[in-house]
Amino acid sequence: MNEDMARIVAERVVERGDLPLLGQDPKRTYRMGIMGGTFDPIHNGHLVAAEQAFDDLGLDVVVFMPAGRPAFKQNKRVTAGEDRYAMTLLATSDNPHFLASRFEVDREGVTYTAETLELLASAYPPNVELYFITGADAIAEVVH
Questions:
Q1: By residue range, what is the domain housing residue 56?
Q2: In the chain, N or C: fewer CB atoms in 10 Å?
């Protein structure tokens, strides 16, 4: 993806407001966890892993990001993104460290984690560090 396209996507993300505003103090380093997954459905294992990462890595926030059209599940039945986002929003709403984002659900086409992380990095200043968090089930799928 070229720089102009990345800038446009980053601006849309900021306008939509479903990602945290981080990076305002240039003297401080901010740490944002990105909990990626299909979340079909989201379950306690996802929430526990995210909370553990929040604590162990000293994160400022964990953003749950349901996959839009997951690249590795094109030949499988996946619940509609809107429904998976709604489940994620409900599951995370009582934890002040967690946010749910529509970032991938609203993107067109097949979504790839590496591209999503690139786009997110372009939306934030250099003093915001991104930490990708995912479940063991997702890692096992990629490896096989």
A1: 3-20+30-143
A2: C
CATH code where residue 34 lies: 3.40.50.620
Strand order in the sheet with 128-133: 98-100, 61-66, 30-37, 128-133
Amino acid present at 68: G
**Burial class for 32, CB neighbours closer than 10 Å (0-12, 13-18, 19+):** buried
* Distance from C-alpha of 101 to C-alpha of 137, rounded to nearest angstrom: 21
- Short-list 69, 93, 73, CA closest to 82: 69
pLDDT digits (tens, 9 = 90+) for 12-34: 666 666 889 899 999 999 999 99
pLDDT digits (tens, 9 = 90+) for 98-134: 999 999 998 888 888 899 999 899 889 999 999 999 8
Whether residue 25 lies inside any domain: the answer is: no
